[in-house]
Amino acid sequence: MSESPDITHAISFDIEDWFHIVEIKASEDPATWPSFESIVQKRTRQILDILSEANVRATFFILGWVAEKYPDSVRMIAERGHEIGTHSFWHRKVYELTPDVFRKDLARSIDAIQNACGAKVYGFRAPSFSITPGTEWAFDVIREVGLVYDASLFPARRAHGGYPCQLGPHLLQWGEGNTLPELPMSVMDLGRFRFCFSGGGYFRLLPLRLIERGIRRELKEDRPTVIYLHPRDFATDCPVMPMPLYRRFKCYIGQKTTASKLRKLLARHRFSTCYEVLRQRGWLPAVNPPEDVTKIDTANE
Ligand SMILES: [Zn+2]
């Protein structure tokens, strides 16, 4: 039974492999990627099964490289009626790219993902939430390649990104009157610290009651919570990459708790896609899921 009947939270997955962790020397060069054992297909299937059990639709921000290598997995996601988004092609941090390089990367990812499954891509999440102040040109590029919303902003300080934006879904404004529907990551303030409670390493690390506390705080402000996870967050058998100890702690703790926490949250609250959460606020056209989100409308191409 849902505790929050009037609010739909967003659930999202960044579909990349375990070796797509940024700034780890051993996997920096994409030429090394095919030599690593992959977990992405197996763990994506596990995620799909958890969502099917709960009858919940989610958004999958897929790395173009993964879509090219494992098109069957992308097809399976789309066939189950989930929303397909892009997580870029090469998993490079946006603030390190030029607008032109970013445009080509993003366009290539959209082609790879749409070719794999025939679903139309509407939204983007930057690798490592790497749209930072000064990188606003990225919003122009996102619109230029035909995307209609962004889910890349992380309104707190973090190692590879962070953008001090309004909390909760909003119409992002930049330049001269430009707007884009934005679904930033949820954060929780604890004393002087602001951190993410509903995604990635924190989701694995925090006990469920703290995640629930974050959700309740968001509800008080009428904000939905955004959950984001990766296939590797479920991988109890994840191969270990050489990296500094503090990063290893954050990358490899709590994997065995992810699935059970997620199942409980899906049973207690109402979740849907990022697109749906923004649509409910009137910033995106109505769709009739799953058909309209997962099929390319050639009339509008
Ligand atoms: Zn990523």
Protein described:
- By secondary structure, the chain is of the alpha/beta class.
- The protein has helices at residues 40-54, 64-69, 71-79, 99-117, 137-144, 200-205, 208-220, 245-251, 255-268, 274-279, 291-294; strands at residues 9-15, 59-62, 83-86, 123-124, 149-150, 170-174, 178-182, 188-190, 193-195, 226-229, 271-272.
- α1 packs parallel to α9 (255-268) and α4 (99-117) packs parallel to α5 (137-144).
- The radius of gyration is 18 Å and the shape is globular.
- It binds zinc ion.
- Zinc ion binds at residues 14, 16, 20, 87, 91, 127.
Question: What are the key terms here?
Answer:
single chain; 301 residues; alpha/beta; TIM Barrel; five-stranded parallel sheet; two-stranded parallel ribbon; 11 helices; 36% helix; binds zinc ion
Summarize the structure.
By secondary structure, the chain is an alpha/beta fold. It has a single domain (9-22, 36-295), classed as TIM Barrel. The protein contains eleven helices and eleven strands.
The radius of gyration computed from the alpha-carbon positions, rounded to a whole number of angstroms, is 18 Å
Tally of individual helices = 11
Main sheet properties? 5 strands, parallel
The total count of strands amounts to 11
- The overall pLDDT average reads 89
Helix content: 25-40%
Instruction: Give the termini separation.
Output: 41 Å
Assign the CATH architecture: Alpha-Beta Barrel
In total, how many domains does the architecture comprise? 1
| List of distinct ligands in this structure | zinc ion
**CATH fold type:** TIM Barrel
Task: Determine the structural class based on helices, strands and strand pairing.
Answer: alpha/beta
Shape: globular
Order of helices and strands: EHEHHEHEHEEEEEHHEHHEHH
**Class, according to the CATH hierarchy?**
Alpha Beta
According to CATH, the homologous superfamily is Glycoside hydrolase/deacetylase
Uncertain ranges: 289-301
Strand content: 5-15%
